């Protein structure tokens, strides 16, 4: 008989437990009727063991069912959500081992209260359907949690970058010429690089590159800058050097098919960023910038240009080194996308370290606070077509809390997509350690602004830049008034 999968063991164990409880059998009673030990029965119900055929027959007879019904992968109505979750293979795709969780432990939780867990899973599935959430939404959420759990710093990838640079004798001086990385792809890994290879396909205009594994061709968007080409080359080198087989062939993930693909895309991104912004010199440069007595946006830009990095690469590297080497783990990163000429501002990337901070993505189509420096710079950029880059800083105090952040934002035109600008923001929680590390923190040139998350949830009455009425606050106030009126009637 073939070995049973984890899902088959879990479903079988749930059915045994369900039938045992329906018939009012204790473990001891079922053990005596089947000749199966108490410990082995416990392992069966937890989904850890699947008995041999003769023991399955004994169980079926004792539980008043047939062997065929007992081994059928279908569960009853009350456990249908659990079966749906298990048979979707979703649990197997999630990186439980990355979080130190065994699938058998999940099975134990399900087995302990299958009906209640089934109802809970049913609720989650209903919520996911209501908000059009697909499996890849959960994959990306799991990836963010994994990055946050590790402070977005991975020593094994840092070592892999160092080994790669030594193996291929890369120059120590940065920036690295994109031509050099392109030649490595062609000479060592058999690539054929096609500049402008996507230009004849308008539907692919938003992609930076597409890799065709059958022919080894890497098709590039003709609008890419040298920096963007170098970053794409670095990612392709990462896929090969790290031997990451499960991958997307597009520059950005359009839809994660399995979690491993999402994770490998993240590893390749990390590798390319670390290749272009090597750890030691980058950390030293960040330290020098933090020691400046005054906030200097030009110095911040120069630091990015020193390594010939895109804003996304630069900010990614900041989130790697600041928690690890400056003792500042409480930070967030947000990227806003903005369609020029509109009031549409969307957070399409975010990262929170140490805890979930106040500025975060809101999936309810509410209006983000217009006091944020992230949005102000995009508005300024929108009105100045001759200037494709803006940098500013802000001390953001979140209304109704003691949490204040030093926010450093860079906004730029978004290549290669026309009509779209983006801003990237690093937020550092203001603490005593931040005061020790960042000499310019109290520079009077950095404005202090009281902010909130969205207009709909903000009770600030004198806000001149409000984009929507405080509907959530108003609803909450009406409900509070109703409760007080009802208490007065008692």
Unreliable stretches = none
Number of domains: 3
| Overall pLDDT level | 87
Find the structural class using helix and strand composition: alpha+beta
Describe the sheet with the most strands.
6 strands, mixed
Query: What percentage of the residues does DSSP assign to strands (E)?
Result: 5-15%
Task: Please list the strands of the largest sheet in the order they lie side by side.
Answer: 5-4-8-7-6-9
* Shape estimate: globular
In N-to-C order, the SSE pattern is: HHHHHHHHHHHHEEEHHHHHEEHEEEHEH
The radius of gyration is 28 Å
Number of strands: 9
The count of helical stretches stands at 20
| First and last CA, distance | 70 Å
The level of helicity is: 40-55%
Structure description:
The protein is α+β, with helices and mostly antiparallel strands and 490 residues long. It has three domains: 6-133, Orthogonal Bundle (434 Repressor (Amino-terminal Domain)); 155-276, Arc Repressor Mutant, subunit A (Orthogonal Bundle); 310-476. The protein has 20 helices and nine strands. Strands 5-4-8-7-6-9 form a six-stranded mixed β-sheet, with helices on both faces. Strands 1-3-2 form a three-stranded mixed β-sheet. It starts with 5 loop residues before the first helix and ends with a helix.
């Amino acid at each position: 008989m073939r070995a049973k999968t984890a899902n088959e063991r879990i479903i079988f164990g749930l059915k045994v437990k369900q039938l045992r409880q329906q018939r009012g059998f204790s473990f001891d009673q079922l053990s005596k009727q089947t000749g199966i030990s108490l410990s082995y029965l416990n392992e069966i119900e937890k989904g850890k063991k699947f008995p041999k055929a003769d023991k399955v027959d004994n169980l079926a007879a004792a539980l008043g069912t047939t062997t065929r019904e007992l081994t059928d992968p279908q569960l009853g109505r009350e456990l249908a959500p659990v079966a749906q979750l298990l048979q979707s293979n979703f649990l197997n795709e999630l990186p439980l081992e990355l979080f130190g969780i065994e699938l058998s432990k999940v099975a134990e939780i399900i087995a302990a209260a299958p009906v209640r867990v089934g109802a809970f899973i049913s609720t989650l599935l209903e919520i996911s359907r209501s908000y059009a959430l697909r499996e890849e939404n959960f994959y990306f959420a799991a990836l963010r949690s994994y990055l946050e759990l590790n402070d977005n710093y991975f020593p094994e990838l840092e070592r892999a970058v160092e080994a790669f640079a030594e193996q291929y004798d890369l120059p120590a001086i940065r920036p690295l010429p994109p031509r050099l990385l392109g030649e490595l792809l062609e000479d060592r890994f058999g690539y054929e690089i096609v500049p402008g290879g996507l230009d004849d396909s308008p539907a692919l205009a938003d992609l930076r590159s597409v890799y065709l594994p059958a022919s080894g061709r890497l098709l590039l968007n003709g609008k890419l800058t040298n920096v963007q080409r170098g970053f794409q080359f670095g990612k392709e080198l990462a896929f090969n050097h790290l031997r990451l087989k499960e991958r997307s062939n597009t520059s950005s993930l359009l839809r994660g098919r399995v979690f491993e693909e999402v994770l490998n895309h993240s590893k390749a991104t990390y590798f390319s960023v670390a290749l272009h912004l090597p750890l030691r010199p980058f950390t030293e440069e960040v330290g020098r910038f933090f020691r400046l007595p005054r906030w200097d946006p030009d110095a911040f830009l120069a630091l990015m240009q020193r390594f010939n990095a895109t804003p996304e690469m630069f900010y990614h590297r900041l989130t790697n080194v600041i928690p690890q080497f400056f003792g500042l783990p409480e930070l967030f990163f947000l990227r806003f996308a903005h369609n020029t000429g509109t009031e549409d501002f969307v957070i399409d990337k975010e990262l929170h370290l140490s805890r979930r901070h106040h500025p975060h993505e809101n999936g309810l189509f509410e209006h983000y606070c217009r006091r944020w420096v992230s949005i102000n710079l995009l508005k300024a950029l929108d009105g100045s077509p001759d200037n494709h880059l803006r940098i500013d800083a802000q001390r953001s105090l979140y209304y109704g809390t003691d949490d204040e952040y030093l926010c450093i934002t860079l906004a730029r035109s978004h290549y290669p997509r026309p009509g779209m600008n983006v801003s990237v923001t690093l937020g550092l929680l203001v603490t005593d350690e931040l005061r020790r590390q960042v000499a310019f923190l109290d520079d009077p040139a950095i404005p202090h602004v009281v902010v909130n998350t969205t207009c709909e949830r903000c009770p600030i009455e004198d806000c001149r830049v409000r984009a929507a009425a405080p509907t959530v606050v108003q609803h909450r106030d009406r409900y509070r008034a109703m409760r007080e009126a009802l208490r007065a009637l008692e």
